[in-house]
């Protein structure tokens, strides 16, 4: 595990409306855009190494509970883990309730006496292709909310280092070369820190969660 930068591919002024995205034509349009990204990576020397999956489902507290919504997430790069994030009213990731649990935690949470219910209508999933480029792993996938196409998400991971400040220069160089239009989309977990901090898989999942929540707020 290294340090990752996760971002959504923005289409700019030519991006179709959410209503248009629902049509099969524009779903094909976005899929073709993902295909173009993959071809760019391959032309630069990246090799296909497999596929990957990320999913996220909110668990909402039952009536009369005061708990926060708990987002349960999985990533195929961490097959034995379940990630739990309950942001509440916190905006600082370090202050949020979060935990890395054993696989299957999501089967337990809904059976707790206090009770949480899965919000299946808000479930997100990303599936796509994983590439290898020297010391980088790059994952390009299509995001769906249930069955509605929402966009293209890219994860760039620099594997040799696990201290954020040490890996940032290499990530910046890679982004500048392949995704220069997204240099300004640096996640807050990667911002310069006053002291070195060890990067965690939870930092990656938090980046995905922010993207999912932004997609969820868009009009359908």
Automatic annotation (TrEMBL):
Transcription as UniProt keyword: yes
This protein's record includes keyword Nucleus: yes
Coiled coil: none
Keyword line: Activator, Nucleus, Transcription, Transcription regulation
One GO cellular component term: mediator complex
Family (UniProt): Belongs to the Mediator complex subunit 20 family.
Protein name: Mediator of RNA polymerase II transcription subunit 20
Organism annotation: Diploscapter pachys
Gene that produces this protein: MED20
């Amino acid at each position: 595990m290294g340090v990752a930068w996760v971002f959504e591919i923005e289409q700019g002024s030519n991006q179709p409306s959410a209503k248009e995205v629902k049509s099969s034509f524009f779903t094909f349009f976005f899929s073709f855009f993902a295909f173009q990204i993959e071809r760019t990576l391959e032309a630069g020397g990246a090799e296909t190494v497999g596929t990957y999956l990320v999913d996220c489902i909110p668990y909402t507290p039952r009536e009369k509970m005061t708990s926060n919504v708990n987002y349960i997430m999985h990533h195929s790069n961490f097959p034995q883990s379940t990630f739990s994030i309950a942001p509440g009213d916190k905006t600082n990731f370090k202050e949020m309730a979060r935990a890395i649990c054993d696989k299957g935690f999501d089967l337990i949470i809904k059976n707790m006496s206090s009770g949480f219910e899965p919000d299946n209508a808000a479930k997100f999933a990303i599936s796509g292709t994983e590439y290898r480029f020297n010391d980088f792993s790059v994952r390009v996938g299509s995001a769906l909310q249930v069955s509605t196409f929402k966009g293209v998400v890219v994860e760039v991971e620099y594997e040799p280092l696990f201290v954020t400040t040490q890996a940032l220069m290499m990530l910046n160089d890679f982004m500048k070369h392949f995704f220069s239009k997204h240099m300004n989309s640096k996640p807050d977990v990667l911002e310069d820190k006053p002291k070195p901090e060890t990067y965690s898989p939870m930092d990656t999942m938090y980046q995905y969660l922010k993207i999912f929540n932004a997609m969820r707020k868009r009009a359908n």
